[in-house]
Amino acid sequence: TLLLGHNDTVRSVAVDQNLVVSASDDTTLRVWSVQAGRELCSLRGHISSVNAVLLLSSEQTEAVCFRMGCTSTYRLAVSGSSDACLNVWLALEGRLLRSMYTYNAITALGAITEDCHIIVGTEGGKLEVWDLAKGAPLSSVIGHDGAIVSIWVDRTGTVFTASSDGSLKVWQWLSSELCAVQVHDALTQEGCQLNCVAVDGSKIFVGRDSAYVKVIDWATGRIDYLKNHPHDLGSTKAVFVKDSLLLSSSFDKYTGNSMVNMRTLPGGAYVGTLKCSGQGRMNALASDIVEENVLRIVTGGAGLAVWDWAPQENYGENPVLFLETLAECAQGDVDEQNKGISHEKQLQLYQENNASAEEATSWC
């Protein structure tokens, strides 16, 4: 489903069930109903490119609204822009609730779930932590020498940041301060531009201007590589982890088409590729689980689109392809059990394993 309305590149997307929020270089955010296939409202207030958006969960919204003394029936979205403003929106009402000036162009955002504090990454490499309810900064640190291009906060509240200076850092929110607990500078020496980061457990997935996604186990130091492009040249602008699935964008410079590659976690076994024809270069990814066993993927870039895929119905409107070149093992990228298994058998085992799971911790 194509969502038409933005007049420029989409930089960031967020999704929760049937609700999608997108941020664009056209200075606006737009709120969409996937079910209705239309725009609900346009969020206007920034005067420059909107580079990042977060859609707070119902629980996070309730916590923030309680502290602010307003009704919790709202749904809050948070945006960061090159105009240096951190804005809080009533997403469904299309109204600006609060605007905070940070003095630095904002390039990335993250949220610490427990306190619903917002991590702000800036063009100058500064990391700030903001209290939305108070509208005030709690902490500030120069985190990197270059722009912060991506922030990921895991379920434990550990913060991961990637920078244009080639460094990757791991942070803990301790005693109202962001404390760096691990630094990876080796990526600087590789000469590949860092674009994005996503985390599952102890594994950090780094999207770069390379044909491979780099995997760093920050607990053991082990490094693996997952092939993400059918050719030797490629660029990964977006990665996203949803439950037991890793999504990574791939742009084919020969055809001008983008793809979303899918791998199971924690092993990294390649499942298949969603071909996003006509979407151009992809900058943003987000996903959620809707209905029963349906993965909803939202992609943003030259266009904005929503894709629904169910493994058990792989021959529908958006069938997932299998590219043999991406299934090849690259420097220990997948475990030994997955070697030599056909695509059909791999997908069958994947569905059986998830169907027999006692807890619904996996996306399917």
Q: Tell me the number of helical segments per DSSP (H or I, 4 or more residues long).
A: 4
Report mean pLDDT, rounded to a whole number: 86
Give the overall shape.
Answer: globular
Distance between the termini: 21 Å
Order of strands, main sheet, comes to 21-22-23-24-28
Biggest pleated-sheet summary: 5 strands, antiparallel
Total beta-strand segments: 28
WD repeats: 3-42, 141-172
Keywords: Repeat, WD repeat
Pfam family, one: WD40
Protein name: Putative wd40 domain protein
Explain the overall architecture:
The chain is mainly beta and 364 residues long. It is 9% helix and 49% strand. The chain has 4 helices and 28 strands. The protein has helices at 58-68, 186-189, 324-327, 343-355, and strands at residues 10-16, 19-24, 29-33, 38-43, 50-55, 76-81, 85-90, 95-101, 106-112, 117-122, 126-131, 136-142, 148-153, 159-163, 168-174, 177-184, 194-200, 203-208, 212-217, 223-227, 239-242, 245-252, 257-264, 270-276, 282-290, 294-301, 304-309, 320-321. A 5-stranded antiparallel β-sheet has the order 21-22-23-24-28. Strands 1-2-3-4 form a 4-stranded antiparallel β-sheet, with no helix packed on it. Strands 5-6-7-8 form a 4-stranded antiparallel β-sheet. The longest helix is centred in the last third of the chain and has 13 residues, at 343-355.
